[in-house]
Amino acid sequence: MTALSILQPFREVTSLQERINQIFRDISPEMDLFEQSLLAPISLTPKTDIYEEDDKVVLEMEAPGLRQEEISLTVEGNALTISGEHKQHEERKKGRYQRVERSYGSFSRTFVLPATVDANSIEAQYEHGILHISMVKKMDAAPLRT
Hints:
Structural class: alpha+beta
Shape: globular
Number of helices: 2
Number of domains: 1
Radius of gyration: 20 Å
């Protein structure tokens, strides 16, 4: 099986942020749920499924609310980087929200391509908020059919 590995250079920073948030919750247990939600870490890491077919590796990433031109794919060596930005398109008045769950800002994910994938064969489509990336396996990596 061909495997894509995910680079996670900020894992320790995220863990530190979660510990700091817990300290604030411990200090102020009377803090209401709205205030606690403001301390929650904002995740701009799109969820991604990766699966393998006989002749290709497919990556499907959630990117709802983005336009195709707001997503960038870059291949450098054996690394595929997908980046983009969720922009807040309207000005909204502060202090009127009951809850804020949507995240805005830039994201970037890098995947190390396996040696079995032809980096020149990468094709991408964006449809209904899902980015579909297809990577053809090199001829010597595809299973033989008899």
